[in-house]
Specification:
Strands 1, 4, 5, 6, 7, 8, 9, 10 and 11 form a nine-stranded mixed sheet that branches. The chain has a two-stranded antiparallel ribbon with strand order 2-3. It is globular and about 60 Å long. It starts with a strand and ends with a helix. The chain is 31% helix and 22% strand. By secondary structure, the chain is of the alpha/beta class. Strand 2 and strand 3 (27-28) form a beta hairpin.
């Protein structure tokens, strides 16, 4: 399977303006993601998809590959599809959407996603981790997933699903295998082309989760399990934590 890795990198960010170019231990955030993605053994090519000339110039100057995409895309999925068409629609079988704000993404995690994608009957795959702390069940920033016996997603929610009717004793995560979402996506090229034509759905609007649009329209999303940690930089506090992590490497 010929897989294209795409890193969407919007310059504008409400909570952290200019996020792709912030410095983390002497390297910009976007180039840290590029360097990690290049270490994946599953990707044929890695490109950054941006809407800002400053990101394009920076990535190109650092030896990365970057393409300009429309500033009007409502999601990273749409930006990935434009990047695919720019890269050559017939040259790739699949696309992996790699979050541009995960500077420490583990290359093996990308490989795990690609493996799940190869086995995904619906042409879509993403990753999840087992919940090991009940605080994740009540954090609105975490997205929980329920699956069927084949590990195809039944639902994604910002609520703790499933609801445990029996109050029981001890931590909730010890009484059920709760799964939390890891925001890394893989799509077959054909399915990605279909997804970007779908209108926003009622469930998507209710939870502000794009993947619910796919489920609501009958698409199957295969869930791969990972033990690798995930760390997104969304706020100035996250950035300071990232700089501390980089200094300790």
């Amino acid at each position: 399977m010929r897989i294209l890795g795409v890193i969407p990198a919007r310059y504008a960010s409400t909570r952290l303006p200019g996020k792709p170019l912030v410095d983390i231990g002497g390297t910009s955030m976007v180039m840290r993601v590029v360097e990690q993605a290049r270490r994946s053994s599953s990707l044929k090519r890695v490109i950054v998809a941006t809407d800002d000339a400053r990101v394009l110039e920076h990535v190109s100057a650092q030896g990365g590959e970057c393409v300009m995409t429309s500033p009007d895309h409502p999601s990273g999925t749409d930006r990935c599809y434009e990047a695919l068409t720019n890269a050559g629609r017939d040259r790739y079988d699949a696309v992996v959407n790699i979050q541009g704000d995960e500077p420490f993404i583990v290359p093996q995690q990308i490989d795990e996603l690609c493996l799940a994608l190869r086995k995904a009957p619906g042409g879509i795959a993403t990753l999840a981790q087992m919940v090991t702390d009940d605080r994740d069940l009540d954090a609105p920033g975490e997205v929980l997933i329920t699956t069927d016996v084949n590990l195809d997603a039944l639902y994604f929610s910002r609520a703790a699903i499933p609801f445990l009717r029996d109050t029981g004793s001890g931590p909730r995560h010890a009484r059920f295998r709760f799964l939390k979402h890891v925001g890394l996506y893989g799509f077959s090229a054909d399915v990605l082309e279909q997804l970007v034509k779908l209108a926003p759905s009622s469930l998507e609007k209710a939870e502000a989760l794009e993947q619910l649009r796919w489920l609501e329209n009958g698409y199957r999303v295969r869930i791969g399990l990972t033990q690798h940690p995930s760390f997104c930089v969304d706020t100035p506090a996250d950035l300071e934590e990232a700089r501390h992590r980089a200094a300790s490497l």
